[in-house]
Amino acid sequence: MALSQKLFFVLCLVGLVFSQDMPYEELIAQIQSCPQECSCPQNFPRAVYCDNRGLKSIPQIPPYTWYLYLQNNMIETLPLDALKNATQIRWVNLNRNKITDKGIEEGFLSAMTYLVHLYIDDNLLSSVPSPLPASLEHLRLSRNRISKIPGGVFVGLEKLNLLDLQGNKLMDDAVTEVSLKGLNNLVQINLAKNQLSRMPLGLPPTTTQLFLDGNNIENIPADYFKGLPKMAFLRLNHNKLGSGGVPKDVFNISSILDLQLSHNQLTEIPIIPSGLEHLYLDHNKITSVNGSNMCPVSIDSLDSSQNESVPRLRFLRLDGNEINPPIPRDVVMCFRLLRSIVI
User: Where is the LRRNT domain positioned along the sequence (predicted)?
Assistant: First the structure.
């Protein structure tokens, strides 16, 4: 059998396998137009791998690409015509390049009207890029040099549910109601390792996961979480929180499941809500543990392990404090579902 016939036979088989996902004609066009600098696997024909190639510019991308991998290159600019043929892209990874604000031509991002995931971690951005496509659901911009979030940059992004801005240079005046306006369906926001000294303002009530590790936050307003009824995962490790700046019942919210306060300056254990399952208080300045004060319900009322009021705490970390074992019996009596405690 001639080589061309063998190739045709292989392509026919591949086309049959992916006939439900990609029409045969599109499959052929996709494979034939794969850039020489990249790889286009036949068993994943909508993906184009141009990562780790030393690229300084984006090659012509095949027309039926959904997943585009450009990470670990030396790309500095994103010209408007770079993806003119690839109008169906859903996922772009541009991590670890040399992209600057000026390097992104206006319209490059918004032209990708099907884009769902955009990763531009570890670049040289100083501002959140705009305009962004309304289809976007995940935006990752960690470890850049971002100090500014332009007002209105998120307006119209009704589908955006994950925003990762960790490891940037954001200060308090950059994270406000104005700059976060439009994040109406946000679920997770990561602002860890920035330069914040207060809790961020303007978070939408849909926020479920808030990561603030490695900032300089010293206090939390007493009513801060009243506007965040779905808050379930809160990380405040490596801040400057002292018990004087943390109202005792500020975390007493029914939705919270995981609370991390490691490496702060707390001297007392805050009130623990009944539904909390994981609590990290290690490496603070806590000197004692009192079960009666910690327990969110009366210990005397917990006469049965089947009682619905039994606190849900399963994991407790207290090491790195000034607490001497053993753990008081009333702590064990209160938190009967506790499976692991580190002291």
Answer: 33-67
How far is residue 41 CA from its own chain's centroid? 29
- Write down the pLDDT at residue 136: 98
Q: Which residues pair with 153 in a beta bridge?
A: none
Rounded (5°) CA angle 113-88-86? 105
CA gap 305, 337 in Å, rounded: 8
Residue given tokens 């996922």 in the structure block: 91
The domains of the chain are located at 254-342
Structure tokens at 54: 């030393």
Closest listed residue to residue 30, CA positions, set 17, 286, 20, 43: 43
CA distance 229 to 206: 8
Residue closest to 136 by CA, chosen among 91, 169, 174, 97: 91
Tell me the two tokens of residue 116: 């769902």
Residues paired with 92 in a beta bridge = 68, 118
Three-state SS for the chain is CCHHHHHHHHHHHHHHHCCCCCCHHHHHHHHHCCCCCCECCCCCCCEEECCCCCCCCCCCCCCCCCEEECCCCCCCCECHHHHCCCCCCCEEECCCCCCCCCCECCCCCCCCCCCCEEECCCCCCCECCCCCCCCCCEEECCCCCCCECCCCCCCCCCCCCEEECCCCCCCHHHCCCCCCCCCCCCCEEECCCCCCCCCCCCCCCCCCEEECCCCCCCCCCCCHHHHCCCCCEEECCCCCCEHHHCCCCCCCCCCCCEEECCCCECCCCCCCCCCCCEEECCCCCCCCCCHHHHCCCCHHHCCCCCCCCCCCCCEEECCCCCCCCCCCHHHHHHCCCCCEEEC
For the chain, state the CA radius of gyration: 26
